Amino acid sequence: MSTKLLTTVALTATLLLGACAGPDSPKQTGGTLLGAGLGALAGSQIGGGTGKLAAVAIGALGGAFLGGETGKSLDRADHTYAQQAVSRSLEYSPAGQSTAWRNPDSDHSGTFTPTRTYERAGRDCREYESTIYVGGQSEKVIGQACRRPDGTWEIVS
User: Mean pLDDT of all residues in the chain?
Assistant: First the structure.
């Protein structure tokens, strides 16, 4: 099997697998693409003749899966850091006091600031401002959260 054909198969597998990750998960997509490429490269070093093509395909698929899972876990880590800050802030911070979070692995960060506390339909509620910083860009969100009957908070708008 020619090197050109092996390269074409590996790149096609990489692009197809990367498209499956979806546009809302850039870390997962990047991990999938990198994993597929590295897996295909590793597979090309194994086997010979017709077995080489199978090794490339298996390497690309396995690498894509492992890379995608790593990317997803990083997104989950960002979410976990942010959620912990939100919970602490809603529960303990007075209006106007920000609680910051930062994922040291991705360097993504943010702040969560309750701005007003009030009661609505017998529930404790808080208005808030949240800012998230990713890749030098920031996004600000303003919303409301109310306490559920079980004591946890839910974002209502």
Answer: 73
